[in-house]
């Protein structure tokens, strides 16, 4: 924690309605304050833009399937290596970078917080071990609940309070931050090689539908008062015509309300905006999906852009990964987790010459440009599924520049222009929009907007400075310059300490791990715990005592205690 | 720990056994006056492991070779000597790792990176070929209670769990009652495929004897039958066409099948191509039903070493840091190859016994170079050591993380104090690392 | 497996060669006799034992350990995995010769270097 004075920069702080104002930022002991601290170091950012440190809401950077992805792709690692330096550890990996390297790469982009969105609870220990080895960032992880036997049973029986108590126990046991749902119900069906093909397709033996799971968990989430909403990877990812499932899904939790944020965060929606009924007539339905997102007041999305790279897909959507490898015949890992979920991994090559990949690329951008409110359409690549996060600067340049998109439309398969509306979209993001979709919006969605994603008083001193002179630079024309500037932060500051200077690491630190700890009524907790004990003895492969993640696994924890004792009272 | 009837006896429960990849976590250990007096639920070998901490003549002081004789010294001196050997060396080999904690692994990897050495695990001589196959074709798998709850067909191919993973069948695969298999073994079928009728084969519903070195052909023939193709030989690998076709039907028509495999496939003739074929068979079967495959990892934390090395460097074993960044090329950067090409000029051996387990030629080279050995007992490797630093047993005298064969991570806790003055692998390696970077 | 590798117990369990009964008859030996096992890499004296998981005529099993490895060859076929199994060997009776302990074996084979 340090003190710093950032002078003369042009500040973009959407959460505080600061839109390109030249002003100074003062950090004292790691926090943003009103006045300069005595003896604080000064950096002059004249001719540069200032944004809050980047906040990543959905990136597969730590855990069992991420590591399986690394194991699976030694050929990928040769493409990008980092030698050891005096300050930094070595690493390798283009689409699946090793842990130390992941932290350094994010920090060079100006990011200071990153969440890994899919943690199988039984393997939570692994996720935390990896998070501990990711430097430079504050982090957190979302435990998966989609195929969870306890959740499905309780919701089926109408025991919403028990479901809430179990979810609270799960967050506490896994030291998780938010409730993640991936292909609800489908991941349990995959235990038999099956899937849930629609929101109303019941899970074999458990006889609950994906719709009921989503609705129930949305309610549970708000009952517990968690900072983030449910984080949902909808059913039918990647399937032709899945836009209908997406539109339907948006409506599912409409009964639940929260005054500060969405009650549904729908993730990597590019993969869920597909029209057509064969890969030959595959087309974008981004317009339809964007309309629905524009209309809704309870859901926001992140995009899951495709970057047209040779990358690695990895999700907890086992049936989808199987389907994908049946199309490509590439190598494929499957890692079903007992009573919980079903991760799968397979490489994918989004070749720009391929019509499907070109359309997918277009869809990601359409969503960003057709959804009017940037607070509702956060930028991700679902790293590494759509492409590596190191491509963020490129995506920023596409969003900010019509000429950049036109240039791409010339290069990629013509289907991108013909079967999407991208070619007709003039809109260009400004820096305020970028700051919203890469920081402010992400922090608000996560429920961390008090300290993250903004530069007002009380925020953490997490700041990114980019070598862009907004008075002398036209992002629309100089899109290459935009990509270059966002690829190597002039300064990345975390807690007031300068970690990156001109794209090079100058200091290594390790950040905090956020986790939520809601407590429901004690007698309800006790009741549910006895259910948990009963089921562990019979059906899990580990003893209950060995399941919760011990304190030692979370270095530098920030525990968000939540009083949810009215649940079950 | 609960207080038991006798005041000075405590019972540790939910203890994780640090022996094999089955990583049982239901062990109970009685401790009285810091001595283990009883072990319950563990298999014969696991029990022996717990009691081995009481072995007579267990080394408690570091040793350094002086004029051909090993003399006692202090931890500090031994650590300094070890650091000196590693710093001076041009291409040190850091090998072993399978019988220690992930926390120790992290320090070992840091040392290897710092000195630009080659770091390799026992995977190299065990399931390395499985990793090579996975890197070519992938691996459809699951955690062990998926088998317990769902499997109605279990195959052990080229492995003998009755000997090497004694509680595997009773904890996870055949005997337990599962959610969907309420009658336990009565709801399941066990098939064993091997070159001889092993003790596991003796309790199987069906034993298929395959000719030595012919697993690859047999796998290919089964795949042909599963995929509806003709088998154009009467007998493949010692198994008749009819039996192969019958087996293929059985595999296709089960509800949930799983293949566990071992050294019978990794070490014989086609090596990684055997595993490749077995994985592809599993993939083929997923077109008809649900099928998984899993390697029977031997040591209790060989999987953990692979995990830590992969997340820290990108590669699961045979990592060469000599260029400053991690490089991986089994066959070139694997321990036996580095040794047999005469490249390694010093060795740090931790938690393994290559002098007992490596082929003759490799050991000839190990015998010629300065060798640092860290482990709890005297072994054939410690006989050749120039520096020997005794350490504590993870999961008994020191806590540490270990990953089960299906990659589930557990914390193996401490149940007794180790001998006075004996440090853990983790502490020793950390000290060696600090000594190496001191003054830099 | 968890006994000290320098103990008599380990030698008894590991410095052995399980042979099919037909092979033993052919060699003119019985359970407990010493045999000499030779490959291109070298030779070793171990105790013959009746096959416990036979029959397997033409195949001998020596448990993993320094005795087996003293006759294991070089290379790894570019896989990293040495040729631990499938070693072509000649087996002869060696009733008059001694089985070395692990310590003695290592001294003789390696410390001579």
Defining traits:
heterotrimer, B: 440 residues, alpha/beta, Rossmann fold, Dimethylsulfoxide Reductase, domain 2, 3 domains, nine-stranded mixed β-sheet, five-stranded parallel β-sheet, 18 helices, 23 strands, globular, C: 113 residues, alpha+beta, Barwin-like endoglucanases, four-stranded mixed β-sheet, 4 helices
Question: What does this molecule look like?
Answer:
Helix content of chain A is 33%, strand content 21%. Chain A has 569 residues and is an alpha/beta fold. The mean pLDDT of chain A is 97. In chain B, the strands form 5 sheets. Chain B has a 9-stranded mixed beta sheet. A 5-stranded parallel beta sheet of chain B has the order 12-11-10-15-16. In chain B, strand 7 (92-96), helix 3 and strand 8 (118-121) form a beta-alpha-beta unit. Chain B starts with a strand and ends with a helix. The radius of gyration of chain B is 23 Å and the shape is globular. Helix content of chain B is 36%, strand content 23%. Chain B has 440 residues and is α/β, with parallel strands linked by helices. With 113 residues, chain C is of the alpha+beta class. Chain C has a single domain (8-110), classed as Beta Barrel (Barwin-like endoglucanases), CATH 2.40.40.20. Chain C contains 4 helices and 4 strands; from the N terminus they run αβαββαβα. Chain C has a 4-stranded mixed beta sheet with strand order 1-3-2-4. Chain C starts with 7 loop residues before the first helix and ends with a helix. The interface between A and B is large, with 59 and 63 residues. Strand 18 (332-336) of chain A pairs parallel with strand 9 (138-142) of chain B.
């Amino acid at each position: 924690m340090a003190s710093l004075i950032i002078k003369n920069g042009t500040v973009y702080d959407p959460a505080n309605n600061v839109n390109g104002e030249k002003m100074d930022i003062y950090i004292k002991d790691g926090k943003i304050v009103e006045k300069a601290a005595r003896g604080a170091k000064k950096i002059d950012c004249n001719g540069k833009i200032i944004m809050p440190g980047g906040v990543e809401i959905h990136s597969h950077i730590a855990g069992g399937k991420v590591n399986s992805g690394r194991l699976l792709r030694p050929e990928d690692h040769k493409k990008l290596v980092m030698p050891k330096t005096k300050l930094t550890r070595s690493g390798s990996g283009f689409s699946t970078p090793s842990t130390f390297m992941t932290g350094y790469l994010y920090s060079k982009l100006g990011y200071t917080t990153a969440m890994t969105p899919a943690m199988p609870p039984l393997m939570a220990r692994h996720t935390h071990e990896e998070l501990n080895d990711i430097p430079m960032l504050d982090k957190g992880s979302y435990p998966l609940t989609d195929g969870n036997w306890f959740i499905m049973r309780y919701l089926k029986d109408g025991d919403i309070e028990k479901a809430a108590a179990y979810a609270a126990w799960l967050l506490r046991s896994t030291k998780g931050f938010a409730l993640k749902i991936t292909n609800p119900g489908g991941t349990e069906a995959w235990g038999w090689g099956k899937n849930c093909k629609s929101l109303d397709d019941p899970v074999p033996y458990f006889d609950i539908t994906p719709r009921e799971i989503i609705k129930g968990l949305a309610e549970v989430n708000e009952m517990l008062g968690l900072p983030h909403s449910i984080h949902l990877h909808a059913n039918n990812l990647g399937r032709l015509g899945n836009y209908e499932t997406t539109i339907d899904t948006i409506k599912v939790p409409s009964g639940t309300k929260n005054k500060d944020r969405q009650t549904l965060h729908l993730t990597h929606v590019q993969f869920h905006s597909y029209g057509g009924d064969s890969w030959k007539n595959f087309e974008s339905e981004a317009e339809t999906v964007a309309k629905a997102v524009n209309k809704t007041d309870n859901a926001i999305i992140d995009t899951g852009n495709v970057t047209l790279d040779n990358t690695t897909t990895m999700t907890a959507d086992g049936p989808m990964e199987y389907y994908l490898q049946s199309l490509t015949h590439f190598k494929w890992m499957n890692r079903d987790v007992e009573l919980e979920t079903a991760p799968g991994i397979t490489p994918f090559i989004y070749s720009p010459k391929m019509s499907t990949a070109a359309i997918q690329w277009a869809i990601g951008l359409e969503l960003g440009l057709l959804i009017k409110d940037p607070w509702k359409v956060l930028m991700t690549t679902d790293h590494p599924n759509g492409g590596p996060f190191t491509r963020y600067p490129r995506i920023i340049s596409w969003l900010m520049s019509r000429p950049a998109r036109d240039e791409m439309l010339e290069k990629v398969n013509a289907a991108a222009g013909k079967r999407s509306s991208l070619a007709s979209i003039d809109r260009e993001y400004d820096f305020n929009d970028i700051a919203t979709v890469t920081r402010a919006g992400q922090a608000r969605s996560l429920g961390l907007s008090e300290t993250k994603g903004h530069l007002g008083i009380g925020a953490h001193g997490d700041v990114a400075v980019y070598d862009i002179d907004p008075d002398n630079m036209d992002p629309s024309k100089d899109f290459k310059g935009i990509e270059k500037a966002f690829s190597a932060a002039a300064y990345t500051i975390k807690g007031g300490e300068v970690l990156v200077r001109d794209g090079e690491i100058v200091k290594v630190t390790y950040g905090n791990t956020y986790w939520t700890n809601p407590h429901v009524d004690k007698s309800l907790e006790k009741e549910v715990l006895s259910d948990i004990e009963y089921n562990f003895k019979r059906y899990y492969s580990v003893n209950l005592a060995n399941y919760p993640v011990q304190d030692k696994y979370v270095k530098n924890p920030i525990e968000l205690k939540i009083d949810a004792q009215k649940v079950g009272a | 720990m609960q207080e038991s009837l006798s005041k000075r006896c405590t019972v540790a429960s939910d203890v994780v056994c640090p022996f094999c990849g089955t990583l049982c976590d239901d062990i109970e250990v009685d401790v009285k006056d810091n001595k283990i007096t009883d072990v319950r639920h563990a298999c014969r070998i696991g029990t022996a492991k717990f009691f081995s901490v009481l072995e007579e003549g267990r080394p408690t002081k570091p040793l350094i070779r002086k004029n051909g004789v090993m003399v006692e010294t202090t931890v500090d001196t031994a650590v300094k000597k070890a650091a000196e050997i590693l710093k001076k060396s041009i291409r040190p080999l850091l090998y072993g790792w399978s019988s220690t904690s992930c926390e120790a692994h992290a320090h070992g990897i840091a040392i290897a990176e710092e000195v630009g050495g080659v770091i390799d695990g026992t995977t190299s001589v065990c399931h390395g070929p499985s990793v090579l196959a996975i890197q070519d074709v992938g691996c459809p798998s699951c955690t062990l209670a998926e088998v317990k709850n769902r499997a109605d067909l279990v195959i052990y191919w080229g492995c003998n769990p009755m000997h090497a993973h004694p509680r595997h069948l009773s904890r996870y695969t055949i005997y337990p009652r599962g959610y969907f298999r309420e009658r336990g073994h009565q709801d399941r079928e066990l098939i064993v495929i091997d070159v001889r009728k092993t003790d596991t084969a003796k309790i199987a519903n069906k034993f298929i004897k395959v000719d030595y070195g012919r697993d690859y052909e047999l796998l290919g023939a089964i795949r042909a039958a599963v995929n509806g193709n003709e088998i154009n030989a009467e007998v493949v690998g010692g198994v008749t066409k009819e039996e192969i076709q019958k087996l293929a039907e059985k595999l296709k028509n089960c509800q949930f099948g799983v293949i566990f495999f071992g050294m019978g496939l990794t070490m014989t003739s086609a090596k990684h191509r055997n595993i490749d074929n077995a994985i592809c068979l599993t993939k083929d079967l997923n077109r008809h039903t649900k099928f998984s495959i899993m390697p029977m990892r031997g040591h209790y934390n060989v999987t953990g070493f692979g995990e830590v090395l992969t997340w820290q460097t990108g590669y699961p074993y045979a990592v060469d840091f000599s260029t400053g960044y991690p490089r991986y090329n089994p066959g070139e950067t694997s321990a036996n190859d580095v040794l047999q090409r005469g490249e390694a000029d010093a060795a740090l051996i931790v938690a393994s016994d290559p002098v007992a387990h490596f082929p003759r030629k490799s050991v000839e080279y190990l015998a010629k170079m300065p060798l640092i050995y860290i482990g709890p007992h005297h072994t054939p490797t410690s006989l050749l050591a120039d520096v020997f630093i005794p350490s504590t047993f993870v999961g008994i005298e020191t806590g540490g993380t270990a990953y089960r064969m299906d990659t589930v991570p557990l914390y193996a806790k401490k149940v007794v104090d180790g001998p006075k003055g004996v440090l853990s692998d983790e502490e020793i390696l950390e000290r060696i690392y600090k000594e190496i970077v001191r003054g830099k | 497996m968890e006994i000290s590798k320098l103990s008599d117990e380990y030698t008894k369990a590991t410095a052995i060669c399980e042979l099919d009964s037909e092979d033993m008859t052919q060699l003119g030996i019985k359970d407990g006799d010493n045999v000499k096992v030779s490959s291109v890499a070298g030779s070793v004296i171990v105790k013959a034992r009746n096959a416990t998981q036979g029959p397997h005529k033409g195949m001998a099993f020596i448990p993993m350990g320094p005795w087996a490895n003293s006759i294991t060859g070089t290379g790894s076929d570019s896989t990293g995995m040495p040729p631990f199994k499938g070693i072509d060997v000649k087996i002869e009776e060696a009733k008059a010769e001694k089985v070395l302990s692990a310590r003695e074996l290592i001294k003789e084979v390696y410390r001579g270097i």
